[in-house]
Amino acid sequence: MPSKTAKLRQLFQAKPILRIMGAHNGLGAKLIERNHFDGIWASGLEISTSYALPDANILTMTENLHAATMINDATELPVICDCDTGYGNAFNVQHMVKKYEAAGIAAVVIEDKLFPKVNSFIPGRQELASVEEFMGKIEAAKNAQVDPDFMVFARIEALIAGWGMDEALRRAYAYAEAGADGLVIHSKGATPDEIYEFIQKFKGKLPVIVIPTTFYGVTADELASHGVKMVIYANQGLRASIRAMDETFKKIRETGSTASVEKQITPMKEVFEIQGMHRLKDEEKKYLRKETIQAVIPAAGDPPAASDLGPVLNKGPLCMLPICGKTLIDRQMDTLRSCGISDILVVGGYSASSIRLEQATLFQNPNFHKTGVVHSLFSASQAIRGKFVMTYSDIIFDRMIVERLLLSPYDITLVIDRAYQTLPRREKNLDLVIAENSDEPQTRRLDRQPFLPVRGIGQKLPKQKVNYEFIGMALIREEGWNKIKQLWNQAQKQFQKGSFYEAENIEQADFNDLIQYMIDQGESVYGMEIEHGWSEIHSMEDYERVNRFFRERVDSLSDT
Ligand code: SPV
Ligand code: MG
Predict the structure, then answer these.
(1) Any residues with Cβ below 6 Å from ligand 1, and which?
(2) To 5 degrees, how large is the angle CA 469–CA 471–CA 474?
(3) Tens of pLDDT, residues 406-452
(4) Based on the domain organization, do 24 and 144 belong to the same domain?
(5) Which of 184, 343, 466, 500 could form a disulfide with 209 if both were Cys (CB 3.0 to 4.6 A apart)?
(6) How many A from CA of 193 to the centre of ligand 1?
(7) φ/ψ bin of 324: left (φ > 0), alpha (ψ from -120 to 50), beta (otherwise)
(8) Structural domain includes residue 443
(9) Domain that residue 158 falls in
(10) Whose CA is nearest to atom 8 of ligand 1?
(11) Candidates 21, 82, 108, 157: which one to mutate for ligand 1, based on the most atoms within 8 Å of Cβ?
């Protein structure tokens, strides 16, 4: 890629006239580029106006350079910077060239007025520097540049200041002698006549640059035919946008809505295109390698045979149970999302067509009546990419449980509730757990969230050994899932006939059965101890309790 300084030099060689458009920020630069101009004028007038300040050297060099850098960074086009009088004397100019060149600017223009200058179209104070002083600035600028292609254009303000053509020409020769790379002959005439006269009389070799703000009737081709090498449209973008914004704001204020302007304003899609949002989105996967955590919710099974939830379920699956205006699965997904889990995979089976999900992927386990939870889990296997939280579809849980679970360092972690030890009733069909807990019951415990090795899991464990209940939620890391896949393969070969742990056959294996098999194969499975903060919904009694909870304390569970 040639440097922008080289690019500008090449353009001077290749084109009869260079068309340059003014900007004050990156957005302007982008629009200029897409309209095929040859370069950009970082206009002092535009930059000042963008700060709502007079074009009178109020802004510092640093502020102007900041705007110029924004422009330059947004475009492949060479940028020519309006540097007013060079921000002081020849030493300021030296420093300025060093900074602008280092920022990748292709050329600078300095004008022969006194600092602080006033915009050329403002009547009154248009004081010119002496020729000697300005020659010193040009020499300082040329000696300061490092890249030989960097250009310094000298702007003659004699016609603006009313000093006449002879003075303009005298200055032109002097600035050429001082080493300027081009001359901006500025004029506030209504026609380009005095420009043409200047060109005709100027016998030097330097390219001539014009800014046809007042003599706007002239075309670039006409200027070229008179020997102009570069035309700078210094402020038309700014003026167009002022008018467009003003009219838009007025209409919105008058009509009380934005409908009146919607069709005239740039669609958001285009705004994002200009920003480069699409590239950013395309590259997100490549650069934003944040660990994504998924959730898998097996929701394929029929409602429990003994359940009295029939009337509220209305033949739908349990996950679609409405709880205070939201389905159970929506409440689960809200809680998971509030913990940063947004890629949610749901496996339907029984009445799957009635499962309504927003921003989650639904998989099917068509053999749900003959298969168990493990089969459902594997139905989503192709979409499981790494770490995931598996949660049964019939539980509701506090987000704190998920948040803490995500911190588990183990490959497979089950959430186990110690409240089982104190529950007065011992329900049937609970998923019981035997976990190793070396703590003496009465001692103080420093670790609020112990992870305990799980030794046994199932519904038929010897009650006297059971100390926890599995709540139906587990964290499975990538390594854990790889082990599960590997051992599940092995189990299928091993258990082709007969029962598989507590399941009638391996096809009907429950998650408990799989985990017990893993443990028996020597794999480590941990339990994360909790106490309360969740509920299963298996019966009308559970359902009413959960509904009551949400009616009374909406802020505590999934809505938080
Ligand atoms: C600018 O754009 O800031 C210029 C050109 O210097 S003019 O406003 O015409 O002086
Ligand atoms: Mg200016």
Answers:
(1) 22, 43-45, 55, 82, 119-120, 211, 213, 234-235
(2) 115
(3) 999 999 999 999 888 777 666 678 999 999 976 656 566 666 657 99
(4) yes
(5) 184
(6) 19
(7) left
(8) no
(9) 4-233
(10) 45
(11) 82
| Nearest ligand (C-alpha, residue 22) | 1
Enumerate the active-site residues.
55
Q: Is residue 271 part of a domain?
A: no
Pair 16, 151 in one domain: yes
Same domain, 75 and 198: yes
110 C-alpha to ligand 1 centroid (Å): 11
Q: 447-505, pLDDT tens digit by residue? A: 665 799 999 999 999 988 999 999 999 999 999 999 999 999 999 999 999 999 999 99
* Same domain membership, residue 456 and residue 378: yes
Whether residue 525 is contained in a domain is answered as yes
Instruction: State how many domains the chain has.
Output: 3
Per-position b or e across 294-315, b if 16+ CB within 10 A of its CB: bbbbbbbbebeeebebeeebee
Ligand lying nearest the CA atom of residue 238 = 1
The mean pLDDT of 228-238, rounded to a whole number, is 98
The listed range with the strongest mean pLDDT (290-294, 475-479, 537-541) is: 475-479
Say which CATH number the domain at 229 has.
3.20.20.60
Q: What's this model's pTM, rounded to 2 decimal places? A: 0.69
Does the residue 27 lie in any domain?
Answer: yes
Answer yes or no: do 80 and 216 share one domain.
yes
Pairing of strands 451-458, 526-530: antiparallel
Same domain, 242 and 201: no
29 is written with which tokens?
Answer: 């630069």
For a ligand 1 pocket test, name from 41, 47, 55, 188 the mutation site with the most ligand atoms within 8 angstroms of its C-beta.
Answer: 55
With CA atoms as reference, report the closest residue to 223 among 205, 207, 238, 201: 207
Q: Are residues 226 and 249 in the same domain?
A: no
